[in-house]
Specification:
CATH class of the largest domain: Alpha Beta
Helix content: 25-40%
Largest sheet: 7 strands, mixed
Number of helices: 10
Number of strands: 18
CATH architecture of the largest domain: Alpha-Beta Complex
Distance between the termini: 28 Å
Oligomer: single chain
Strand content: 25-35%
Order of helices and strands: EEEEEHEEEEEHHEHEHEHEHEHEHEHE
Number of domains: 2
Bound molecules: NADP nicotinamide-adenine-dinucleotide phosphate
Shape: globular
CATH topology of the largest domain: Quinone Oxidoreductase, Chain A, domain 1
């Protein structure tokens, strides 16, 4: 089925309703993304139909757009996992939300994609109520990256006040939210980022910053309780000596490396590899942090739906500070 979860079409007076969406027929560069008309989905059991107002982009969007052999079958498909919008309709059995509610969430990763469209369906419990004081752009920027940071640092590492945490690519979508989540838990935060981004990260709460272009973090950092790796297996290997005995390295980019658990065990430290999951409790926690001001995503750029190719091209430079967001009128 080309569009998972969207076999049911909305109809009015027997006429199929359609919606604009960004789709692709082949893998390739940003130019394969095209604006198309598709049938509007209907919510199935336990699902919401959400009118999308904003959809954050993540590196997995451009990876899935271009690379074969990731998680999805071949295109055509509509990408996009982050969403903030308004509940248009609820499927049977939904008790937490009603039409008109403002919600935000991450569609189930990897197979629930489809938020680069005017409407999307997803399980009700992938969403939380959007705090009233937070706009759709900020809410749409947040879910996947914040849930990743939350699931790594809180659910997996269970970081505590006073612990030392090393966050790689601290200026990235995940990294800059991880800095804020770690600070909200009372941790001491060390981040790696290029020097031009240090002031911004200090303002977000980072205690120590390492310019990875001039300083080797593997020499500069010792005795951390937790490392969050966002760069890959080689970076994981180089990070192991920075941990205190019994410390934990959580990677979000080393799923296919079978050697790391043993390498960590040889050094008396622990290793975990994480793939973000749709998470109602996590979304509620993220909503609370946004509402309190403890979490505030940096918006690197905002693009209308039709300019999704431009946003993808900017994102895949791997240099953006914070999050790119697509808005849907
Ligand atoms: N497993 C999962 O569930 C999961 C979830 C989310 C993301 N991910 C993956 O995690 C990775 C990071 O995601 P993201 O959204 O944070 O990416 P991102 O926002 O695109 O990251 C961009 C940032 O990375 C920094 N950077 C690049 N190379 C660096 C290096 N060698 N050292 C330190 N910083 C460096 C850049 O800062 P400078 O300009 O200062 O270099 C830039 O600010 C991606 O590969 C993504 O696919 C996995």
């Amino acid at each position: 089925m080309p569009f998972p979860g969207r076999s049911l079409c909305g109809t009015v007076n027997g006429m199929t309703e359609t919606m604009r969406a960004i789709s692709q027929d082949t893998l390739g560069g940003p130019e394969v993304l095209r604006e198309v008309e598709l049938p509007r989905p209907d919510p199935g059991p336990s699902q919401l139909l959400v009118r999308v107002r904003a959809a954050g982009l993540n590196p997995t969007d451009w990876k899935h757009r271009a690379l074969p052999g990731l998680f999805l079958p071949a295109p055509p498909f509509v990408l996009g996992w982050d969403v903030s919008g308004v509940v248009e309709a609820v499927g049977p059995g939904v008790t937490l939300f009603a039409p008109g509610d403002e919600v935000f969430g991450m569609l189930p990763y990897p197979h629930g994609h489809g938020s680069l469209a005017e409407y999307v369906v997803g399980p009700a419990r992938a969403f939380a109520h959007k705090p009233a004081g937070v706009d759709h752009i900020v809410a749409g920027a947040t879910p996947l990256a914040a849930l990743t940071a939350w699931q790594a640092l809180v659910d997996t590492a269970r970081i505590e006040a006073g612990q030392r945490v090393l966050i790689h690519a601290a200026a990235g979508g995940v990294g800059h939210l991880a800095v804020q989540i770690a600070k909200a838990r009372g941790a001491y935060v060390i981040g790696t980022a290029s020097a031009a981004k240090h002031d911004h990260l200090r303002a977000l709460g980072a205690d120590e910053l390492i310019d990875y272009r001039t300083v080797d973090f593997a020499d500069a950092v010792r005795d951390v309780d937790v490392v969050l790796d966002t760069l890959g297996p080689e970076n994981c290997r180089r990070s192991l000596p920075t941990l205190r005995p019994g410390g934990l390295l959580v990677s979000i980019l080393a799923l296919r490396d079978a050697e790391l658990p043993a390498l960590a065990a040889e050094r008396g430290v622990r290793f975990a590899s994480l793939l973000v999951e749709a998470d109602h409790e996590g979304m509620r926690a993220v909503a609370g942090l946004l509402e309190s001001g403890a979490l505030s995503p940096t918006i690197a750029g905002v693009f209308p739906l039709a300019e999704a190719p431009k946003a993808h091209a900017l994102g895949e430079t791997d240099r953006t500070l914070g999050k790119l967001v697509i808005t849907v009128d």
